[in-house]
Input
Amino acid sequence: MSAETLYGRIHSDRNLVIEMVAELEAVKPLREPKRELQVAPQIHIGYV
Output
């Protein structure tokens, strides 16, 4: 495949994905479960 052909394919097919498989794992830093850091969200229910 020539460089010009390859360059043309990159521009025309760059957003084309046939199949993609990914396996992700969340890595969180260790910390103590402190109650003062756990803030409950404020929930407002409005009637219309």
In short: DSSP finds one helix and no strands in the chain. Residues 1-25 form one domain. The two ends are 65 Å apart (CA to CA). The CA atoms of residues 5 and 42 lie 58 Å apart.
